[in-house]
Amino acid sequence: MMLAGLMSATVLSGIAPAYAQERAARSERATRGGGDAAVSRGNRMTAPRNDGVRAQRPQQRAQQRPRQMTPTRPDNRLRGEPARALEQARDRRDQTQARRGDQRADRPQTRNDWREARQDARDDRRDWRTDRRDDRRDDRQDRRDDRRDDRRDWRSDRRDDRREWRDDRRDARWIGERDWTNGRRYDDRTRWSSQRRWDNGWRQDRRYDWRSYRSRYGDRYRIGRYYAPRGWSYGYRSFSVGIFLSNLLYANNYWISDPYAYRLPPAYGTLRWVRYYDDALLVDIRDGYVVDVIHNFFW
Known about the structure:
The chain has helices spanning 2-46, 51-63, 81-106, 111-177, 188-191, 210-216, and strands spanning 271-276, 279-284, 289-294. By secondary structure, it is mostly helical. It has a domain at 182-294: Nuclear Transport Factor 2, Chain: A (Roll), CATH 3.10.450.160.
């Protein structure tokens, strides 16, 4: 019994102070509430009523809330050609920027890069110079080869011309041998012993300028077709000074009777101007020796 009494007394001793504290707090709240109520009552008596303002506060708070961001719509004025032009301008700007970025990326950035770029440029120049030198050498070699070939061709042509000239001379001599009087041929001294030596300087004399005369009176040089003498089967051959002709080619029916009519110098002694196809030949009629030649004299 005594133990139970002690326990109950201990419990009651702990509850009483807590109850007292709670009661004191309630009294303080009451006093504070009364003062606030009095103050509020005084304010109600003196200050005007703000019921409308209190009613508007929730609406103001609702208006002050942040609005949600709505996506902007494209302007209808930028439709059609202006919009396309604007898009094209933007595309060009983007392309230009990308190109500039590529160029900048290609540029060397460090000193080593610059050195390597310069070395590459020097190597390219050296290669270009060596290629150019090789091309020049090839061109020189080709020119030398062409010159050598031309010289060889020229020499071969000259040899062929000489052979033909010799053959023609042999043929002419052979043809004339059977027509010579007693087989006689005059040498250079004997030929000009009885008459004046022929001077080829007549071409410098203006009286015998047959080229300008033929340009004005070309019809006089068209004297018809040339008919080779009977027994002459060799056709046309280009004769030169020193050739001996057959008497068939310088017969009197082939003489040019009036040389000055064609602005040719007069022939004298045993010399006669003879027509041979379209050429004019000055021939010594004693042995057929050709003293002077004008090729393509007649038309």
